[in-house]
Amino acid sequence: MRFPATLQEFQNQFPDDDSCWQALRRARWPRGFRCPRCRCPESSWIATRALEQCSRCRYQCSVTAGTVFHGTRVTLRVWFWAIFFLGRHKKGISALQFQRDTGLGSYQTAWTLLHKLRSALAPRSDALLTGLVEVDETYVGGAEVGRRGGREVLNKSIVIAAVEQRTHTAGRARLQVIDGVTFEHDLGPFVTGVIDVDRTVVRTDGFAAYRPLNRAGVRHERCVQGLGKARAKEVLPWAHGTFGNLKSWLRGTFHGVGHKHLQRYLDEFTYRFDRRWEEDQLGGFVLQRAARAKPLPYRRLVAEPVG
Ligand SMILES: [Zn+2]
Prior knowledge:
This protein is of the alpha/beta class and about 300 residues long. It is built from eleven helices and eight strands. Zinc ion binds near residues 54, 56 and 57.
């Protein structure tokens, strides 16, 4: 399905909640619904309860069960607005802006909804990076507008990045919040988790903590830098550029974000970064992800230690 690219298209394609439900059904069951119990392909849609009912055995299946929309009290059209903004705005949207644009009564609802969508955007663990991959780490920090509207000052977080270096451009990226910079607990598991070891050469700066990569079976190029930032930029241009873009995005769109939820912002950033050549289709991609991702109950969303 092609997701609307303009507000006018949105208005035409999703004039009401029902049209959104139909689109969600198609995203959830792209090849059509098939009864999980008796495999019957015939079913009817019970609109009042958002249920698909098997025509043979009468088994009922909720279209939102097992998706990020699970248990939502917000109308589906509001979710679709959020998907539109996430997909359409190059720089995403903050909860405050989303609340203003949509007239949602509660900041917490806007915040929750956007985070649930972000939770669906983490890179697939089997989509491994290949080729020449730059790896570097940086500090990210600042203040964010808290859930309760107050301003919380937060400590800096460490973010590690792996970015494919391609001719004249970057390929895909992976970003993760890490607790420290030890090889054993932080750098090693991250690097070996995001690359296809047999098809990758990892390039880092001279930081000694990356030394054990070779022993871990990773082809590793350690570039010992001279002094100054210019040199670092030459050695790891795409990792540095990515960090720069990430930080200005976090500052510009969200005025900084806290450590606890940073990973989900990194996932949104990466999602957009990896698909920057397919911007027009981003809304549709986000809907597909949301229709297949696991639910994230509010309780877990606010309790979850991210990293
Ligand atoms: Zn059935």
